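Below sits my pick:
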Amino acid sequence: MRPLFEMLTGLLYNESESNWNRVLTLMRKTFKEFPLFKKSVDDETIEKSMDFNMRQRVIDNQALARMKWEARKSHTKDKFWVQEEWFE
């Protein structure tokens, strides 16, 4: 399910709280349908089952993009030291 929402990370960096809530609600709703959870399952249980923090993923992707941009601007060919959990 993650790849379905991964492309939103670039768009959500400066979004309002209402747009964040729409995306998070859609993620939970979509996730409930995959393992056939009942509609009565609470959001906290769903988020624990997803094991995916969208807000942190957006921040991490933004930081990685900023590092890449700065390297391009300064014409450095250094390797990027990226945390492994960014790509899990």
Notes: The chain is about 55% helix and 0% strand.
